[in-house]
Structures are given as structure tokens and as C-alpha cells.
Amino acid sequence: MILTGKSAVITGGGTGIGLAIARGLAAQGCQVAITGRRLSVLEAASESFGGLSVKMDVSDEASVVDGMQNISNHFGSIDICVANAGIAEGQNIQNSAFGFWRNIMAINLDGAYLTIRESLRHM
Q1: pLDDT tens by residue, 33-71
Q2: What kind of fold does domain 7-120 have according to CATH?
């Protein structure tokens, strides 16, 4: 598959697996945007491969709508989307508050849905 000139978005791209994916896609010739909640982390990460950093909270619909629009405006369209953002926090279920659970679901499930939905609107 030829990726040169394609545009890619990786949520949670500032660290870990997301950053590795971003670097790999950039090495294959993609224009890469990474998103996350901590802009300083994103900017430091994107310097390593010349990518675009976009502050975006995948659990917030308006943030995802705006973020994907900004990325699409910058690149002209979105060709590849990696819904990588997610959290894993250990807590005993019997001692956890329902809000703890909702936060995990908002990021891991709602975030994937919103990310894919909005990226498809710009493909």
C-alpha cells in the first residue's frame, strides 16, 4: 500500500502506541496529525516526525467535531484515522464510583465512536 501523500489522524498520539503509529505513518510519507488533551505533550511528540498537533478531548463531542474540522482544513481531507485514545485505570469495582466507570466509557467507547464518525465526514 502506498501511503505517500495520505493524511492520517491518530487520537492519543502523543505517547506510547499512538506515537509509534504516528511515527510509522510519517516514515511512510503520510501527513500526520496527532490529537490528545495535553497540547504540550503533543507538540513535543510531533517535533520528532514533523506532524500536526491538535488539542482534542475524544470524550467531548464538540471538541472532536472542531478538531477533525481543523485537521481536514489543514490537510484538505482525512484519509486514515486511528482511534487509539483510551485509558485503563485499575480500581476495585466494589469501591469505585459510577463516575469513574462513565469516564472510562466516555473515552474508550464514546471517543472511538465520535472519532470515527467525524473522520468519515471528512474522507
Answers
A1: 999 999 999 999 999 999 999 999 999 999 999 999 999
A2: Rossmann fold (3.40.50)
